Amino acid sequence: MTSLEPSNVVGYSSPMAPFAFTGEVDVVVDVKRPISRPIVRPLSLGIVPKVEGNTLRIHLTHPCHLAVEVDADLHRPLFLFADAPEKNAPKLGDPDVLYFEGGRIHDAGTIELKNNQTIYIAGGAVVRGAIRADNVSGARILGPGILDGSTRDKQMKMVLLNKCSNIEINGPIVMASYGWTINPFLSEDIRLINVKVLGWRDNDDGFDPDSSRRVSVEDCFFRTKDDCVSVKAHGNFGLEGSTGDQSRFNTDGVTIKDSVFWSSEWGHALTVGFAIRAPSVRNILFTNCDIIKKEKGWAMSVDNHDLGTVENVRFENIRVEDGCDKLLALNVTFSSYSADCPFEYFRNNEKRKKPTGVEWERVIMDKSSSKRGSIRGVAFNKITIGGDRLPGSEIHGFGSANEISDVVFNNLTFQGKVLKSPAEANIRIQNATNVSFLPELR
User: Fold this and answer.
1) How far apart are CA 197 and CA 44, in angstroms?
2) Cα-Cα-Cα-Cα dihedral of 55, 56, 61, 67, to 10°?
3) What's the half-sphere exposure (Cβ side, CA atoms, 13 Å) at 394?
4) Is the backbone of residue 110 left (phi > 0), alpha (psi -120 to 50) or beta?
5) Cα angle for residues 338, 269, 286 (degrees, 5° grid)
6) What is the pLDDT of residues 66-117, one digit of tens each?
7) 20 to 30 Å CA-CA from 428: which of 77, 132, 163, 319?
């Protein structure tokens, strides 16, 4: 039985219950008020809880990641992380294993990951700290325990993988990041499996693969205040004074699959952008995912605020549940986030001016006469939209140069109906070419 009360982990604002099981199990949730409308998400699993007085009974037949809502209370969901038992878990004393025992709070500070090392966070362990890896290969971060940032009062990344290769993160709950949660930069062959990210603090992007190659996310759960997944490329492409081969900052080959996403107040659930500061970001796949909540902003987007090219991006078999404020956006634009923005307006300038007024309009006019980046080859295949209202969408190039092209919608459905045109799909289109709708998935 799980009580719907706050976790005893410092700073955590919503309850969670991680556990492992085999076969089938009934989870009994004790609620401290009458129950009228319980919902278990993702809805695609078809789990209908039974109400027994002030308790909920939830029957599980396989491991899954769930959010339980009681009477549409978005501030107090219960997160159930039901895993299969671990196989071949490291043991205390194993060589090349940094082992954090269960049943303890570990004030670890900054943990430096080393070549071929395993960091193991056992079930019941809470590790207060951050992980750094620089030029590391063949390492792993494992275990069902918690990596906790709730006591930190300064923004910093929770897990930073800089120039790393062949890294696996499998199992942990990473929570309360104040700043980006997991960020591979200039890295390759990075794998996230069964990772649970819970965030509610500023700038807490869940996963930001940046200027990296061959990156995959599988069977994970993200609940963040900001972006859940944001694919980026931070280089200096096209900027005055940039030197060297800027293609080293390209991002190529990111797959996000079989996962669940809840993005609350800021950001987007699944996005490519804003930073496209390399020649190209390409071959990005989001597939078989559930966006269970997007309270404000876009559920899916490609936002190019810079000078590079985004190409071959696929969103396929995506289920967007109710609570979606806006559905999808493809934007080539200039903003205070753009690397070529004058510093007086630049997003990272703490003393920046607001991007409004006559002076800002002059900046926009100046940028509109020069070439921006581009987006081409984006497919939305088998996208299912839930809820009572069809949210709006937009495809918007920066100018008449038509920087957005070759966009395909294939089986975009709302309330069981296939949407066959921009008007039916509530999509506004400006400065884009070759946007097509196909009635059936091919």
Assistant:
1) 20
2) -130
3) 13
4) beta
5) 100
6) 999 998 777 789 999 999 999 999 999 999 999 999 999 999 999 999 999 9
7) 319
- Look at strands 140-142 and 105-112 and give their pairing: unpaired
Vertex 23: Cα angle to 21 and 24 (nearest 5): 85
Question: Which residues have CB under 8 Å from 183's CB, separation 6+?
Answer: 157, 159, 160, 161, 205, 207, 208, 209, 210
Query: CA gyration radius for the chain?
Result: 22
How far apart CA 138 and CA 150 sit, in angstroms, is: 29
CA separation for the pair 50, 58 (Å, rounded): 7
C-alpha–C-alpha distance, residues 123 and 90, integer Å: 12
Could you give the CA distance from residue 251 to residue 146 in angstroms, rounded to a whole number?
29
CA of residue 119 relative to chain centroid, distance: 23
State the maximum Cα–Cα separation within the chain, in Å, rounded to a whole number.
68
- The whole-number pLDDT of residue 251 equals 98
Give, in order, the Cα–Cα distances in Å from 113 to each of 68, 116, 118, 270, 305: 35, 9, 8, 28, 33
Q: Report helix, strand and coil shares of the chain as percent, to nearest 5.
A: 5, 50, 45
Pseudo-torsion of CA 396, 400, 405, 410, nearest 10°? 50
Structural contact between residues 196 and 180, judged by C-beta atoms closer than 8 angstroms? no
Taking the C-alpha atoms of residue 66 and residue 15, their distance in angstroms, rounded to an integer, is 12
Please give the backbone phi and psi of residue 75, each rounded to the nearest 5 degrees, phi first.
-85, -15
CA distance 415 to 412: 10
Q: Which two tokens stand for residue 71?
A: 């009477």
Per-residue burial over 164-186, b = 16 or more CB atoms within 10 Å of its CB, e = otherwise: bbbbbbbbbbbbbbbbbbbbbbb
What Cα–Cα distance (Å) separates residue 313 from each residue in 61, 218, 220, 240? 34, 18, 20, 29
pLDDT tens digits for range 331-378: 999 999 999 999 999 988 888 999 999 999 999 888 887 889 999 999
Q: What is the pTM of this model?
A: 0.94
Give tens-digit pLDDT for 146-193. 999 988 888 899 999 999 999 999 999 999 999 999 999 999 999 999
Is the CB of residue 162 less than 8 Å from the CB of residue 133? yes
